[in-house]
Write a structure and sequence with these properties.
The chain has 234 residues and is mainly alpha-helical. The chain is built from six helices and no strands. It has one domain: Four Helix Bundle (Hemerythrin (Met), subunit A).
């Protein structure tokens, strides 16, 4: 099996995994709407919680992966680490966009406003702009080594913002509630809500894996084709 054939196989498998994730995401909302109790205070509007929170989890996971891959790239100068970081960053921006879109839809009936400049919202928006700049940087810098180094530095700086966003509800006064799963006394959600949330977290993680794998395989295919063209030109 040639390198390009191997990459094409990865593309097919990653596409199947992504489609499976999307199908399971539909199952998440069937469970959320039909088999999960309605929250007593917020009512049906709370159901968006099962997309909003897992999207945030996956965005943070994606940017954490960017940070780790970027650190190792600066140490080992391995191009595959740079390509994987870029793939994870692209997917992370998509999921952060989902967070920023679903948040206001949830906030309007609960807070009475689409947006408020509290610490978590503001820092999440800043994170989105930072990684959007990361993607713009990668299109602007043509020399591969220079592009990878600049991207790695920016990717590490963005990853450092993730724990700050997570802890912002404890560090500042904010409209966001305190953690209902990751807290010292254990989860405070009722059983059916917690089960649906964990199901959604697993599904979103599968979707993340499929999308990153697919985008990475595309990058590997493009690199293999470029090398073949360069060899033919000699």
């Amino acid at each position: 099996m040639t390198e390009i054939e191997s990459v094409e196989r990865s593309l097919r498998l990653s596409r199947a995994l992504t489609l499976a994730g999307l199908a399971l995401l539909a199952a998440v909302y069937v469970r959320a709407l039909a088999f999960t109790q309605v929250e007593a205070t917020q009512g049906p509007a709370q159901k968006i919680f099962y997309v909003h929170v897992p999207s945030a989890w996956v965005a943070f996971l994606a940017f954490g992966v960017v940070g780790v891959c970027s650190v190792f790239y600066l140490i080992f100068k391995e191009p595959r680490l740079d390509r994987f970081a870029a793939s994870s960053a692209e997917v992370g921006v998509v999921f952060t966009t989902a967070v920023l879109l679903t948040g206001p839809i949830w906030a309007k009936p609960i807070w009475g406003a689409w947006w408020t400049w509290d610490a978590r919202l503001s820092s999440t928006l800043f994170l989105w702009f930072l990684y959007f700049a990361y993607l713009v940087l990668r299109t602007a810098v043509r020399e591969p080594g220079q592009r990878a180094r600049y991207s790695a530095v920016l990717g590490i700086l963005g990853a450092l913002l993730v724990p700050f966003i997570h802890l912002s509800v404890k560090m500042f006064r904010t409209l966001h509630p305190q953690p209902v799963v990751l807290n010292p006394d254990g989860p405070t959600l009722p059983g059916s809500m917690l089960a649906t949330l964990l199901f959604s977290l697993a599904v979103m993680t599968i979707l993340y894996a499929g999308l990153v794998w697919h985008r990475y395989a595309q990058a590997e295919r493009d690199e293999a084709r470029a090398m073949r063209v360069a060899d033919d030109a000699r």
